[in-house]
Automatic annotation (TrEMBL):
This is G-BOX BINDING PROTEIN. PANTHER family: G-BOX BINDING PROTEIN. The chain crosses the membrane at residues 12-30. Keywords: Membrane, Transmembrane, Transmembrane helix.
Length: 92
């Protein structure tokens, strides 16, 4: 009786969106811990203090997704945008 009361099909999109948000936060947390040059987990690295590691910071900031979208147009649906903004549409 309890599962039918709490797990309604109307709530599945909510569970999915919260799950995706938690997944994105977890991925960003793991990415920051493992690849961020400013985060030092081990005691040996923490004692080093502030490092001038420009190459490491550049490598972290210029990740693969940023390189992929750099030369793309900033549109989500370019064909629909072109359809509605094209001035050469036939008029009635």
């Amino acid at each position: 009786m309890a599962p039918s009361r709490w797990l309604k099909p109307e709530a599945y999109p909510l569970f999915a969106s919260v799950g995706v948000a938690v997944g994105i936060c977890g991925m960003q947390l793991v990415r920051n811990i493992t690849t961020n040059p400013d985060v030092r987990v081990t005691k040996e690295n923490r004692t080093a203090g502030v490092l001038d590691n420009f190459k490491e910071g550049e490598k972290y900031a210029e990740h693969g997704l940023r390189k992929y979208v750099r030369n793309r147009t900033p549109q989500i649906m370019p064909s629909i945008n072109g359809f509605f903004s094209d001035p050469d549409l036939p008029s009635n």
